[in-house]
Design a protein that fits this description.
The longest helix is centred in the C-terminal third of the chain and has 18 residues, at 141-158. The protein has nine helices and two strands. By secondary structure, the protein is mainly α. The chain has one domain (41-189): Lysozyme (Orthogonal Bundle), CATH 1.10.530.10.
């Protein structure tokens, strides 16, 4: 079944997609395993979170840091569980994803950029045709995070682990140091976390 799904996804990916000044090529094979199926606005449950997290220390620590952006405890914990799950699923550091979200949208679910990027991770709508399904709503929590993590994983693989270049590609600013540096600064100051 998984092979059939992967084959089906390979047929769906266009060779190139563009919007505004963005030009994206087909997602590389290692990224295509993150199929975007049956996603909704539902947060990751405690059960799903516990299946991949060693303990709840990360959740407690990050919840305290995020309080000024998301004062409602339930919403904040649902958001954090989903960030952790989607980042880990894509082989990414959840704190990096929090840094990107802070820079991209300031943790605003319904943020829209001047270029039309949407949601927490500021996903351009053309990605729906490239890697998703037409019914996907980029403002939905899990959809937005799955897309963002999948896209960043693609760029990290493409750039052979070079975070600076991958972040610049993610933002559409390759060759400009400002965006990656903003993300790195948040990652090291606001969201740095070491498990005890």
């Amino acid at each position: 079944m998984r092979k059939l799904t992967t084959l089906f996804l390979l047929l769906l990916f266009p060779l190139s997609v563009s919007a505004n000044n963005y030009s994206e090529e087909q997602l590389i094979t290692s990224t295509q395993t993150y199929a975007l199926q049956e996603l909704s606005d539902q947060a990751v449950s405690y059960v799903e979170y516990a299946a991949i997290a060693d303990n709840i220390a990360w959740l407690i620590n990050m919840s305290e840091r995020l309080k000024k952006y998301k004062p409602d405890r339930i919403e904040r914990e649902e958001f954090l569980r989903t960030v952790y799950y989607e980042a880990t699923r894509a082989g990414l550091d959840p704190q990096l994803i929090l840094s990107i979200i802070q820079v991209e949208s300031g943790f605003k679910k319904y943020a829209v950029s001047h270029a039309g990027a949407r949601g927490y991770m500021q996903i351009m709508p053309f990605w729906i045709d490239a890697i998703g399904q037409r019914e996907h709503n980029l403002f939905h929590l899990r959809v937005n995070l799955r897309y963002g993590c999948t896209i960043l994983r693609h760029y990290l693989d493409k750039e052979k682990g070079d975070y600076f270049r991958a972040l610049a590609r993610y933002n559409g600013s390759l060759g400009v140091a400002t965006y990656p540096q903003l993300v790195f600064n948040k990652w090291q100051t606001m969201w740095h976390y070491t498990a005890s």
